[in-house]
Structure formats: structure tokens, C-alpha cells
Amino acid sequence: MTPRIHIDTAACNGYGNCLVAAPDVFDLDPDTNIAFTQPGHPTEADHDSLREAEADCPVRAIRISES
Amino acid sequence: MNAGATTVIVGASVAGIRAAAALRHNDPHRRIVLVDGEDEDPYDKPPLSKAVLSNTDLPSPTLTDHIGHGIDYLRGTQAVAVDPAASTLTLGDGSVIRYDSAILATGSAPRHLPQLAGIPGVHYLRTLAEATALRNDLRRRPRVVVIGGGFIGSEVASSARELGLDVTIIEAGPRIAARVMPEPVSHALAALHAQHGVSVRCGTAVHGASYDADRRAVELNLDDGDTIVGDVVVVGIGTTPCTDWAADSSLPIRDGFVCGPDLRVKGTSNLHAIGDVARWFNPRYGEEMRVEHWTNAREHAGIAAHNIGHPHSPRHAATVPFLWSDQHGTRIQHVGDPNLTAVDVDAVHLSHSARVFTYSRDGITVGATAFNAQGALAKIRKQLVDQRAAVLHADHIYH
What we know:
The complex is a heterodimer of chains A (67) and B (399). In chain A, 22% of the residues lie in helices and 24% in strands. Chain A has 67 residues and is of the alpha+beta class. The mean pLDDT of chain A is 84. Chain B is an alpha/beta fold and 399 residues long. Chain B has three domains: 6-109 and 240-309, 3-Layer(bba) Sandwich (FAD/NAD(P)-binding domain), CATH 3.50.50; 112-237, FAD/NAD(P)-binding domain; 329-395, Enolase-like, domain 1. Chain B has eight helices and 26 strands. In chain B, the strands form seven sheets. A five-stranded parallel β-sheet of chain B has the order 3-2-1-7-19, covered by helices on one side. In chain B, α1 (14-26) packs parallel to α6. Chain B starts with 5 loop residues before the first strand and ends with a helix. The A-B interface holds A 13-17, 19-20, 23, 27-33, 51-52, 55-56, 58 and B 18, 21-22, 25, 44, 46, 66, 294-295, 298, 302, 322, 324, 331, 333, 372-378, 381-382, 385-386.
């Protein structure tokens, strides 16, 4: 199963906790301060760090689902 | 592996809630008991000094989506004693829970100003109930006096200005945010207040107060001889860790429960302290610290949960302190070394409203504060977190 990442860009407030939890997956746009996922697909190995990123978001802007 | 083992968590704010969720994620069979003295559904605290005050339409900042999953949540239940030798927790009603492991996450509480004891109209801010009471008083559209120019005080001041109120901050120290920020940042924060019509008075303390029942106002007497009148007074002069309930135990308490790098309370094998209440040895900095911020509580929770499940391969809490604050529409973020004395400060304006203060010691970046520059701060934070070599080195020294 590949995790799917949904970022609620309206809720995102640029805390940056996600890119500390999962630095290979998330980054912040330097102009808008909004989180985005870096190109490439997250793998199974990223699963725990993705869950960390989801839990670490102070405004719950990240949802991880399995597809 | 630990089927049927009981973990009890004291405190259901972000640290306790996240620890419960992580424990459940790691082990579907563990019995998890979460105890909290407040009779509320669990909620998140950062909004209490911000949106909860200025936006009355907002629902309560709940944390309930993290509970469930077979977690026994005992709300309105005070923990009154812990016995580490017997591995028991005693509750306010006299009942006793035997635990295999426990997590102390009782947080911190506002320090009170004895000069204001018993005076109506004086608020402290820690709980949702207190935030709601303050919000109701602010709706009388009064004059607001905030005592203490730290982040909580500044956020309350900002929220009150958003409501169009007349706001003054009284700070006993020479500048606001002096405890956590270098001087240029204090000046920038003061300038932000000035731009938005908050009056800031530094270098004077409150030495007495009286209540005028007819005018429903508090008269504050200041050290400099002045008197200032507020309809609402909010005190934000720092916090103390909530350890009193465990004072009779044999646990080491020194401005927090004293813990090793794995967050285990010293002298115990199955007790962890996390979040505001933990004074732990942070191997990254090679020193004991106590950090009162959301991200620290959150990180501690995951580490303690892991260590309870893996006592022979514990993780160390080598966290890089990180905090944020919202004041007058400006997002302020701060990362890094909690000890900011003797640092060089480099200020860079990225745009009209965005700027970054970077701190270095011997040419090495140790921290930064950003105003409306989350992307730039995130890069510095990532760089600080990645300084693994320093972490391993400090670990080695500790053992």
C-alpha cells in the first residue's frame, strides 16, 4: 500500500514540523510559507515518519491515507 | 510482548494525549489509563491566548480525535500521589491504580502575583475555562492591562487589540521577552506592539493593587510611583511545573521531574516525565533543560512511548527547542539553543514584513527567530536538527 498525502493548504500555517518529521517528503515554499510534498512517491519505509508528520501538525493540515 | 500491561498517563494535554496515541499505535493490547484533573474533553492549548480570545465563533480546540482506541480516559480526576517503589498512582477519590509503566505529563501552571491575590478582574491563563472567562470579560470592551511581556502576555495583548480594546503591557524587566529572546528581537517585538497601538512600559513592577467595586476596575500601583487602571488585568509572568501533587514521593524534583536523556525519571525504571514538567538531560546540548512548548511536548510523547515499549533500546530526547507565537498578524517562530547569551545576532530583512534573526556562536549557527518567514526558518531548523555529530558526541559524554 502506498500512503497518500493530503495537505490542506488553506489550513497550513508554515509551522514546518512536517519537514522535520519527514524531511525527504515535505518542504515549505519559501514565498508562500505553505507546505508541499517534494517530487517522487513516498515509500513504505517513510510510513512512520509520515504518521509523525501528520500528528506533529499543530493545525492538522496533513492527512495520510492508504490507497 | 507486553500484553495486558498497564500504562498510566497523568495529564491529558498535548503531551499526555500524544503519548496515549503513540502507545496505542505501538501496542494494540496495552491497557492505557489517562488521568486529568480537568473535567473537559482534551483540548489543545496554543489557541487559548490567540484565536479563542479574539474569535468567538471558534469551536473549542479539541484533541479528542486522538483518544478512543480503548484508552480509559478519567476526566475530572486528580492524581494526588505516586509511589514509585510500589508502582502505584493514587487518585483524589482514594482509589489506587497499579501500573507497569507511567508517564507524568502534568504540565505547568502560571506563577501568581501575590500582590493581586483576592482582587476581582485578575486573570491567569492556562485552561480552556480560564480562556473562556477572560474572553467574556474582554467582551465588556474594557481597558486591559497585561502584566508580563513574555509571549503569552504579548499574545493576549494582541488578541485584545484585535477586539479594539485599550491595552497596556507592564514588564518588570528592562525589555519584553527578555527571558527567551536576544535584545534586537525584543526591540522588534516592542515595535510591533507600538505599530498596533499597544502601550508597553518596561522597567516597572506592580507593587500593590486595589479594586474599585463601583467602577468595577482594578487600580495598579507601580514601582515608578504611577497608577494605572484596568477593567481587566491579565497576568503572564511565567509558569512553574506542576509537581506539587507528587512532592511526597521519593522522586527527584528540581523545577520539574529530573530525568535522564531517555526521559526516565532518575532513580526509577518505569516512570517517564514529558513536556513542560520534565527537566531532562538533553544530550544535544549536554545540559539539563525544561522546555514549555507544544513541539517539545509532542516530541517527548513519542520518545517516552517508544521507550516504554523498548526499554533495552531507548531513544534519547535530543530535541531542538522550537516555538511559535502570533502577534498582531505576524507569525513569529524561534528555533535553537535555549541559552542565547553570548551569541552574535545577524538580522536580515527578506521583505517589508519578513525578517530573520540568526544567532551564532564561534561562527556556528545555534538558533534563529523569524518574523513572517516560515520557509527560511524551516531551513535553519532542519539544519540544526541534522547536526547529528554533535548529538552523538554529547551522548558519549553522558555515559
